[in-house]
């Protein structure tokens, strides 16, 4: 049993080695023509500059939180507070490092993918995937590494008091980075995209990614900043959170239900329950590594098949490993204090429930956002009567898509609660909450592959942009387009995992929050403080959506003004005279500054609100978190799916439906797509991190509130 | 004290006499030219035909519920079940009668207002107001009449067991009518409006309300069906609910907190607490009658001033009456069992909190939807970059507008809870819930005037349409436009009262639900069943919005097809050749059928969902209701304000900003306005009734669930 953290260490080192190997492969590939090299350099420079500036701003925030953790009485004495501060810092630093590595390689993979596309999709696909996999395995590897080290350090070696509070602080560190990376990245990418498109496509009448448009480079930078770095930080946090949550929850449930020792230290034979989430993390990592190695470019096989193979292999192996690992770890029906783990196999079932649930939520996202199904076709149909009906139908379908997602999440919660109880021969007992927390790890066990496949999308998208800007032959653009459209589908599935796991993880963290508070909170909905909290909490995602959408609007306006200025003031730019170049750097600057400025208010609110409410009334904070988690989940699903559906409705029309490009129907669909941009890439994804950051802040600080 | 129900009877008879007098005044006025008479006749015929068909469909539902109340064990023996069935039927019938009378007069006042507008606004304003006031005082009068009779019948004279369950059934009857009237009316009005506008204004290039457009009559019918009948039924239910809720809550709190007798019958000296809400209803009614008599047409005074005078007088008198009435009813600090009502004046304060809170929520709606303030100006500004940015900003502002509304509701809940406790010298005690329930009556005490002012809007709107269709001189249209634009502002305030009271009333009903369930429910958010319920409940308003928006889309499509067909097949119609008339009747039929068909699914769900969940698990139902009330309130505010803001942004541009009519900016704003149509007039308002119908169904049926 003591081998588990070391197994996790080994698995994470293997993941990092795989990332290193993939990075080498990517960097060895040819960058193509001088112009491609130049464009790629500009994108990389813009993206890395943004990341550096973002980290500089966020480091102030991290420093403040570090001090706060030291001075606020979140633990009875100074040692665990010091430990929590360092765990927090480690979470923040490791997440930043993962983001840095992932971005560096993603912005190298884009030109190389574009160049490889000249030799066909079979050459380009594995390169784009490997570029994404560097992010994927840096994220998963560093997160698991951090958790293992923290576990060994505080729980095993030093035996710090309230050690699991300290482990939770690691998750809080990861959240801090994710919060700002998601919001800042989301604003950046859509400011450039919306602003650039509105002047370029609509006013100047030049195609997307045209080198004449001054915002084109900023748009490509935005794909990396938002979809690579933002998403990576988000999933670093989700993955870390999904392991931290059941560890912390188990540490709290053990004394309550299993007659174990106090929170202070020795869990005796109950330690298996604390180890189990880490074991699943390690096994899922190994499964993901094997899966990733199966993604190769083969001529004649479908691209989506090749990409999905890796994912399915990783998922199937995780199931097998989880069953075997569970039986080995809990061989011989161990007892925990007065309780017997009579049927450990049911714990493995909760993992499987999570894995299948995440996949199923992803599938419902695909149903609502793919042009092969009724919702997107219906939205495209509404384009015949103009932008208003397109918008109405897109909003309606996005809202409707919350139905299957909620039903699946509710089924996952119910089943894993049941299985969690059955593992102890006591279905319906509150010990079943442990099963709910495990479901979240089940969902994210294959994070390495999920992020790899997701980060593949923006790399392929960038490659297409570079092919366009570098004026490569149209067939190259055809290859990158086929890679890109595949990326849209895989992104829907990854979003399903991200949002589903956010809800379940937040729930597990919330349960830990109230267990930590113990008898000192009364979370009865009838309590007036809880009611008030519920209203305020449910409101927060609405305000968050409003703030982020307005931010995109403002930033896009600034971009529009600049692009218009350049078209007006630079002679020959619009006409595309040879040698005339736009001042892309200024557009990159505008996006960077706008994103950094605009991320502060929503990001700050997410941390400050639970602190303020918690210090006023912990019952109200309980209601607040419940309201925020539930509504945040709904809005996340709704906005992501509305946005995705509009995007694909436009593509469906561009592929020829309802008259194709250039018709009024197409113009209407473009409006829907533009409205959907901040929905799916800014406000929607920001909800995942919002609900988790608020619960984890509450969990870490709850001893101080009481 | 025993005089209170009789006072309420007298007040409601006075209200009905006022309605009768106003109806006479309206009907005596001149209908104008033959063409006006003809157009007015067509509108009235369409509206009344819809109402009849709606009532026919709903009567099946009402009959089913009647039987359900008889056979489901909602009470221990048959007598209270029979009583509940009859109370239910009375609620349904009285609400229908109020709708019928109000519609009949509103559809008479429209032509007469148009005719009076030929002599100026000072002649037209009082006529439109009186037309609306017939609806207002029919609604308030019949609701208060029904409650008084029910109270006397079941509580005083027959002394039925579980009498307050029976009184709640009256509210359920009112809800049943409101549910379908709101949804059906909302779909009707926007199907006609969106469908008619998209073909007429956008495709055929003819102005709004042009007699050539076959959908124009249907549009005018829709204003009556949605904004008069739908809104009237909604406020009948709100008003009845706001009085029923504290009566029921008091009957449940008395035995729990005040050592009173059982639920079975005799409340002894505690009866004052049960009477108090009815007293406030009676006093508010008298204040409203006096206020309404102050609305007269005077030359040279501002229209809005004249309309608001009545409202403010009613509000001020209610405050005075409430203070005096409270001191008289509770003179000499009476004791209720073991409790002393030590400071009854605090109960009057809860009424004032409600009244001011409702007004303040209305004011925030005005801030977010009036062109005089920043939000609408910002949306208009975004029209410069096209429909997408208009839409994004409108959604962002609507979501942002939930902030002040939630803060106000939360403050109202907190303050009235505090005051409720302080009245008994025990601030913070759960008895304070009584105060929360009272706040809702405070808000709706002046329902008569609120509905009058709100129903004034569609009458003025209709008058404008008739002036246009009857080809009256442009200055007449100018007068009706000035009346109409005033109606938009007053509607925002009325919506504030409606949605604010919906949240607080639903909350009071929810508390009654859990008190009725007693120890048999555990509404701890940590309970897994409650969590699951919370997710499902919060999802329901999203699904409700999706269904109603899609319904509008489908119905509008049917309308578009028909209008296109008429323009194509009727020679000379588009050109406006003399004597060529569109087939308006078919458009009216299409709207009617679509509205009736489309209202069934969402309406049915609202009743069936709580029943199904309640029979499975009452704890889950508790979570479900809490989730639905909170999210429903947020979505109601968001959709109403986004819709209103887009509408006024368009009007702001039409008044000359950003280039005025005919510019791209105007076209963009029209898209926003069309998107906003189902937001503000279908889905948004349906939320109010959704959350109340679900809580009241749960309250009435909870004994059967256990």
Topology summary:
The structure is a homodimer of 706-residue chains.
Chain A: H1 3-28, H2 34-71, H3 78-116, H4 121-157, H5 163-204, H6 216-257, H7 271-293, H8 303-329, E1 335-336, E2 339-340, H9 345-369, H10 374-382, H11 387-400, H12 402-423, H13 433-444, H14 447-469, H15 474-517, H16 528-569, H17 584-616, H18 618-654, H19 664-705
Antiparallel strand pairs in A: 1-2
Helix pairs in contact in A: 1-4, 1-7, 2-3, 2-5, 2-6, 2-17, 3-4, 3-5, 3-6, 3-14, 4-5, 4-6, 4-7, 4-14, 5-6, 5-16, 5-17, 5-19, 6-7, 6-13, 6-14, 6-15, 6-17, 6-19, 7-8, 7-13, 7-14, 8-9, 9-12, 9-13, 9-15, 10-11, 10-18, 11-18, 11-19, 12-13, 13-15, 14-15, 15-18, 15-19, ...
Structure description:
Two copies of one chain form a homodimer. The first copy, chain A, is mainly alpha-helical and 706 residues long. The first copy, chain A, has one domain. In chain A, 82% of the residues lie in helices and 1% in strands. The first copy, chain A, is built from 19 helices and two strands. Chain A has helices spanning 3-28, 34-71, 78-116, 121-157, 163-204, 216-257, 271-293, 303-329, 345-369, 374-382, 387-400, 402-423, 433-444, 447-469, 474-517, 528-569, 584-616, 618-654, 664-705, and strands at 335-336, 339-340. A two-stranded antiparallel ribbon of chain A has the order 1-2. In chain A, a hairpin with a 2-residue loop joins strand 1 and strand 2 (339-340). In chain A, helix 5 runs antiparallel to helix 19, helix 6 (216-257) packs parallel to helix 15 and helix 7 (271-293) runs parallel beside helix 14. The model of chain A is unreliable at 260-265 (pLDDT under 50). Chains A and B meet through helix 5, helix 11, helix 12, helix 15 and helix 16 of A and helix 5, helix 11, helix 12, helix 15 and helix 16 of B.
């Amino acid at each position: 049993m003591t081998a588990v953290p070391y197994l996790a260490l080994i698995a994470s080192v293997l993941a990092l080695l795989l990332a290193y190997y993939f990075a080498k492969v990517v960097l060895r590939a040819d960058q193509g023509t001088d112009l491609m090299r130049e464009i790629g350099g500009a994108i990389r420079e813009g993206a890395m500059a943004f990341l550096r500036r973002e980290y500089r701003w966020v480091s102030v925030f991290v420093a403040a939180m570090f001090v706060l953790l030291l001075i606020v009485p979140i633990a009875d004495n100074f040692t665990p507070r010091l430990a929590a501060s360092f765990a927090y810092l480690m979470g923040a630093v490791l997440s930043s490092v993962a983001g840095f590595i992932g971005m560096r390689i993603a912005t190298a993979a884009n030109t190389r993918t574009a160049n490889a596309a000249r030799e066909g999709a079979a050459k380009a696909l594995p390169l784009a995937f490997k570029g994404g996999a560097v992010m994927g395995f840096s994220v998963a590897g560093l997160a698991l590494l951090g958790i293992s080290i923290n576990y060994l350090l505080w729980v095993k070696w030093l035996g710090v008091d309230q050690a699991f509070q300290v482990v939770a602080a690691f998750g809080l560190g990861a959240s801090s980075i994710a919060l700002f990376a998601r919001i800042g990245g989301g604003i950046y990418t859509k400011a450039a995209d919306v602003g650039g498109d509105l002047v370029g496509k609509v006013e100047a009448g030049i195609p997307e990614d045209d080198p004449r448009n001054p915002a084109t480079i900023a748009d490509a930078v935005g794909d990396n900043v938002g979809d690579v770095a933002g998403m990576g930080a988000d999933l670093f946090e989700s993955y870390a959170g999904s392991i931290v949550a059941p560890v912390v929850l188990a540490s709290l449930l053990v004394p309550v239900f299993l007659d174990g020792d106090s929170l202070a230290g020795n869990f005796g034979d109950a330690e298996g329950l604390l180890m189990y989430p880490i074991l699943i993390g390690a096994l899922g990592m190994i499964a993901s590594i094997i899966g990733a190695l199966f993604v190769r470019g083969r001529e004649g096989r479908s691209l989506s098949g090749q990409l999905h193979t890796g994912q399915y292999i990783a998922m199937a192996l995780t199931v097998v490993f989880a069953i075997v690992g569970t039986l080995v770890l809990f061989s011989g029906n161990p007892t925990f204090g007065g309780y017997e783990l009579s049927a450990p196999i049911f714990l493995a079932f909760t993992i499987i429930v999570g894995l299948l649930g995440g996949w199923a939520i992803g599938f419902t996202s695909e149903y609502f956002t793919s042009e092969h199904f009724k919702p997107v076709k219906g939205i495209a149909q509404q384009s015949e009567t103009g932008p208003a009906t397109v918008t109405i139908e897109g909003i309606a379908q996005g809202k409707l898509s919350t139905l299957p997602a909620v039903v699946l999440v509710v089924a996952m919660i119910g089943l894993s609660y049941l299985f969690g109880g059955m593992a102890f021969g006591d279905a319906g007992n509150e010990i079943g909450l442990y099963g709910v927390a495990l479901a979240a790890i089940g969902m994210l066990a294959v994070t390495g592959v999920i992020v790899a496949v997701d980060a593949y999308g923006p790399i392929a998208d960038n490659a297409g942009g570079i092919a366009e800007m570098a004026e490569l032959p149209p067939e190259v653009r055809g290859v990158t387009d086929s890679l890109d459209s595949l990326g849209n589908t895989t992104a829907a599935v990854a979003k399903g995992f991200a949002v589903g796991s956010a809800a379940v993880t937040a729930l597990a963290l919330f349960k830990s929050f109230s267990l930590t508070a113990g008898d000192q909170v009364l979370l009865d909905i009838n309590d007036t403080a809880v009611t008030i909290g519920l209203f305020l909490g449910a409101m927060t995602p609405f305000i968050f959506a409003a703030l982020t959408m307005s931010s995109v609007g403002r930033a896009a306006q600034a971009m529009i003004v600049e692009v218009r200025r350049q078209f007006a003031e630079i002679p020959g730019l619009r006409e595309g005279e040879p040698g005339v170049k736009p001042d892309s750097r200024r557009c990159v600057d505008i996006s960077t500054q706008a994103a950094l400025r605009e991320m502060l208010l929503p990001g700050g609110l997410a941390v400050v609100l639970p602190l303020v409410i918690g210090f006023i009334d912990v019952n109200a904070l309980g209601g607040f978190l419940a309201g925020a988690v539930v509504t945040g989940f709904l809005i996340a699903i709704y906005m992501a799916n509305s946005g995705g559906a509009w995007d694909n409705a436009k593509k469906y029309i561009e592929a020829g439906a309802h008259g194709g490009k250039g018709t009024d129907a197409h113009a209407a669909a473009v409006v829907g797509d533009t409205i959907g941009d901040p929905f799916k890439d800014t406000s929607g994804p920001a909800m995942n991190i919002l609900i988790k950051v608020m619960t984890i802040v509450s969990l870490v600080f709850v001893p101080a509130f009481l």
